[in-house]
Amino acid sequence: MSEQRPQRPPRPDEELERFHNGDTLDSIPIITERRRLPWKRTLVGVMGAVALAALVFVLVRPQHDQRGATASQQAGRTSASAGTATTAPPSGSNPTPSKDSATPVAGTAPSVQAQPACIDVTYKLPTGDALCETPAEVCALGSPMYSEYLESICGAAPVARVYVDNTDKVESGGCLSLESTTWATGAAQYAGTQAPMYQCSAVVDRTALEAGGPLTVCQESYPHTRQTFLAEVTTPAGSTTACLTANHGA
User: Fold this and answer.
1) What's this model's pTM, rounded to 2 decimal places?
2) Rounded Cα distance, 248 and 250, in Å
3) What is the pLDDT of residues 117-175, one digit of tens each?
4) Which residue has the higher pLDDT, 98 or 44?
5) Buried b / exposed e along 17-46 (16+ C-beta atoms within 10 A)
6) Most exposed residue of 4, 108, 161, 218, measured as fewest CB within 10 angstroms of its CB?
7) Which whole number is the average pLDDT over 27-53?
8) What is the secondary structure of 164-199 as a DSSP string?
9) Taking Cα atoms as reference points, which of 139, 124, 235 lies closest to residue 184?
10) Residues 6+ apart with CB under 8 A from 236
């Protein structure tokens, strides 16, 4: 009977490995446990969430764009309808332009009418020559343009302020020679009662001295014109009111 060799005692590292595996017998194989990788599960979860979000975006975005386009089209139709209702003339209307209305310029709104270029008047009297003068010409102090609607066209006449520096006395029948452009801001020279009419811009009809008090209304030689007008005449001696009639010939 052969004797058995004694077995070699295990090395310390072998003992440690068998201890961790729960094996203290030589017949049980060593099982090495694989380490799990926890980050793989996290990665799979993140990729799944991204894929789900992308799917939701693809499904929802076309519906949002379609709703936006529909809202824009509806707003455009509403604006177009409002513009048509504002600019379209009423059904069956056929407006007739007035005689004094200016011809509309191309590209302007037909409802906007310009001021009349001129006013139908006659010269001095209703039986005078027919003319068409600008509102400024008809309403000017001293103007001989006649219109029975003068007051409604021009309003009340202003009081002229006339300055005379070559005499202390201005009397009825005297001649005034206008040195400025208009009677409203006039400076004149007094030529007396004997001056020829061609030298006179206006003739003094009467003054406050002859009337016995300040004048407020002038007796018009030519009614419905501005040819006769009220004026405050100032001389070196003081001021007085007077009625003046502008000279425009026969």
Assistant:
1) 0.54
2) 7
3) 899 999 999 999 999 999 999 999 999 999 999 999 999 999 999 999 999 999 999 99
4) 44
5) ebeeeeeeeeeeeeeeeeeeeeeeeeeeee
6) 4
7) 59
8) E-S-S---TT-EEEE-SS-STEEEEEEEESSS-GGG
9) 139
10) 165, 168
